[in-house]
Amino acid sequence: MGYCKYLLGQWGQGTVVLSPRDLSKEQIEKFSKEIRVLRRSKVIFDPQLYLPHSEHPKLSAHDYWPANYSTGVFWQGRQLKDLLEKLVTLNEKIGSFEFILPGLLTSKVDEDWLAIQEAVLEKAREMEPGVPLISTIALESSAVTQEQVAKLIERAEQWNADGYYLVCEHPKGEYLVAEPMWIANILDLAAGLRLSGSRVILGYCNHQMLVVAAAKVNAICSGTFMNVRSFPSSKFRPADDEAVVQRSVWFYCPKSLSEYKVPFLDVAHTLGCLQDMRPDLKFGSYANRLFLGPQPTTVGFSEQDSFRHYLNSLHIQTAEIEKATFEATLCNLETVFSDAERILNDLHSCNIRGQKRDFREALDANRAALSILTSTRGPILKRQWSALP
């Protein structure tokens, strides 16, 4: 919460996605007021009903959470109406400017799941909440296939939702995804929904998702720890409740699109290549102390510095990545990737790597996915780019 208030105050605008898994009802109401008094700042609420049968203790403590959930019955009658009525009331109370509808996490885009999606949207329309309706599309990695994405896009064209909130589980729990077809399918899904005239927001993102600018996605959502920069379904199961782990402080290098533990910056300092990793001035001063002369592990670069720097850098990169045309956006992405590749090659030659947060393999996956998007949807994106809302 502190990061949100601080950074939105610095930026002069922004939107916070409120998480009932991490906040009590009282915290949600209090915090929403604190955000909305900031200049040009808004809140939206993600009900996180991805796994309603899981009985997560923090989620099930909220008033709207189903007490006796049964998949076959719940989405067909009074229980769905009760759920939406409670969510409408909560959204009104916190001043949410859009209504993110509840959506089940699915491993397969089948008729049962599609029927639930349609039932939620239809019932929400009947209630006329007075704000745009944003349908949640929550997919396990096994559902992010070419065939299932195509089926989903075809059906979604009939829904005419005001927008979509995409939550997509990474394959094999990867932080940075090295599977090009997963990226390509996310791009295709996002582009298909955008071309239908709806807004698209991607939840649980890290900097790899800068690539969705090529699908003209409206926004990506990110946060501090890894479990809000990618979507782990385990986060919404009881067994995942806050294990104690040894945390490392990471530095995000916007030039290489990679993150590094601070001891690896000591190596770069010793080998004389640390300044190659220094962020441009536009990225602010949060990480400056790492590059002022002393060995980086001695300067007190804190977790707070790390998170502020990461989120501020991503804020700047998202603002710069999309251009006036599809072709110009692709060209800009390739420039970003080429610059990252050059720096990564130099750093790797000195054995300076970001371990699981190194962008080398993700770079190849992103490029391959963009090639597929250009081949399949490039012509229509070129024609309709400026008309997309």
Give a short summary of the structure.
This protein has helices at residues 2-11, 25-36, 71-74, 78-94, 111-127, 146-159, 180-195, 262-271, 303-321, 326-349, 360-376, 378-384; strands at 14-18, 41-45, 99-100, 105-106, 133-139, 163-168, 199-202, 219-220, 250-253, 258-261. It is an alpha/beta fold and 389 residues long. The protein is globular, with a radius of gyration of 21 Å.
Report on the architecture of this protein:
The structure is a single chain. With 389 residues, the protein is α/β, with parallel strands linked by helices. It is 43% helix and 11% strand. It is built from twelve helices and ten strands. Helix 2 links the parallel strand 1 and strand 2. Helix 4 (78-94) packs across helix 5 and helix 10 runs antiparallel to helix 11.
Between the first and last Cα atoms, what is the distance in angstroms?
30 Å
Mean pLDDT: 96
Helix content: 40-55%
Unreliable spans are none
Radius of gyration: 21 Å
- Approximately what portion of the residues adopt beta-strand conformation? 5-15%
What is the H/E string?
HEHEHHEEHEHEHEEEEHHHHH
Overall shape:
globular
Major sheet description:
6 strands, parallel
Count of alpha and pi helical runs: 12
Structural class: alpha/beta
Number of strands: 10
Strand-helix topology:
Elements: H1 2-11, E1 14-18, H2 25-36, E2 41-45, H3 71-74, H4 78-94, E3 99-100, E4 105-106, H5 111-127, E5 133-139, H6 146-159, E6 163-168, H7 180-195, E7 199-202, E8 219-220, E9 250-253, E10 258-261, H8 262-271, H9 303-321, H10 326-349, H11 360-376, H12 378-384
